[in-house]
């Protein structure tokens, strides 16, 4: 199976183009103001203009007001919502868009519970649990906590980079992987060669199947 790759936290048009050229299946825009990777609605709408066909535009939110999600959806042609906070299943499901839910993994059972609670999602993203942080931390977690039975597509995130992602894909066999800090020069500023190396590493492992 071909492992999908999402590059998250883009803020510049040249990075959007470089991610697409490197072969990213999806890109993510952060609508969460405390994040150094956050973009305004206007900036995101502009960034999407440089996104070619067949690349999924994802909007990332952390405990947003309903009005923010609705305002973003009315101005930015997103393909997918990513809820990265403590949003309820009903809240996530109440917008006219497909969505994935992020779960910060701390203990055995966290992922199984999330699969049950968020069963209407289009995928479950598993990320590291870090105190007082919702994501984009560059930290990984114990992949042994990931169950082999997966009722939804599982997207592995947390501290991945070109030198670790091959091992991650080999061990976890996720539907997709998600990376932010591992392909950056500084927060929100991506590095074209790092994105290419990352994606090539993922597909190198895919080819050994
Ligand atoms: O990027 C952020 O600043 C951020 C802030 C709050 C919630 C989520 C955030 N980002 C999520 C991601 O970029 C990724 O889905 C994931 O957390 C992996 O990030 P990284 O460990 O940096 O690869």
Automatic annotation (TrEMBL):
Pathway: Amino-acid biosynthesis; L-tryptophan biosynthesis; L-tryptophan from chorismate: step 3/5. Keywords: Amino-acid biosynthesis, Aromatic amino acid biosynthesis, Isomerase, Tryptophan biosynthesis. GO terms for molecular function: phosphoribosylanthranilate isomerase activity. The keyword rRNA processing does not apply. Its EC number is 5.3.1.24. CDD domains: PRAI (cd00405). It catalyses: N-(5-phospho-beta-D-ribosyl)anthranilate = 1-(2-carboxyphenylamino)-1-deoxy-D-ribulose 5-phosphate. One of its GO terms (biological process) is L-tryptophan biosynthetic process. Residues 5-200 form the N-(5'phosphoribosyl) anthranilate isomerase (PRAI) domain. It holds the Pfam family PRAI. It is an enzyme of class 5 (isomerase). Belongs to the TrpF family. PANTHER family: N-(5'-PHOSPHORIBOSYL)ANTHRANILATE ISOMERASE. This is N-(5'-phosphoribosyl)anthranilate isomerase. It comes from Marinobacter confluentis.
């Amino acid at each position: 199976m071909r492992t999908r790759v999402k590059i998250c936290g883009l803020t510049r048009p040249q990075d959007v183009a470089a991610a697409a050229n490197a072969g990213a299946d999806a890109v993510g825009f952060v609508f969460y103001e405390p994040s150094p990777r956050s973009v305004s609605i206007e900036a995101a709408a502009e960034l999407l203009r440089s996104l070619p066909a067949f690349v999924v535009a994802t909007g990332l939110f952390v405990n947003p007001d309903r009005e923010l999600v609705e305002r973003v959806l009315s101005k930015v042609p997103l393909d997918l919502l990513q809820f990265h906070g403590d949003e309820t299943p009903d809240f996530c499901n109440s917008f006219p868009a497909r969505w994935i839910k992020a779960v910060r993994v701390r203990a055995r059972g966290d992922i199984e519970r999330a699969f049950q609670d968020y069963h209407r999602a289009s995928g479950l993203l598993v990320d590291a649990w870090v105190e007082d942080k919702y994501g984009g931390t560059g930290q990984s977690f114990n992949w042994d906590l990931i169950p082999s039975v997966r009722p939804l597509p599982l997207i592995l995130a947390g501290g991945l980079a070109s030198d670790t992602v091959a091992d991650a894909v080999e061990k976890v066999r996720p539907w997709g992987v998600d990376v932010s800090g591992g392909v950056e020069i500084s927060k929100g500023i991506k590095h074209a060669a790092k994105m290419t190396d990352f994606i090539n590493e993922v597909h190198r492992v895919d080819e050994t199947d």
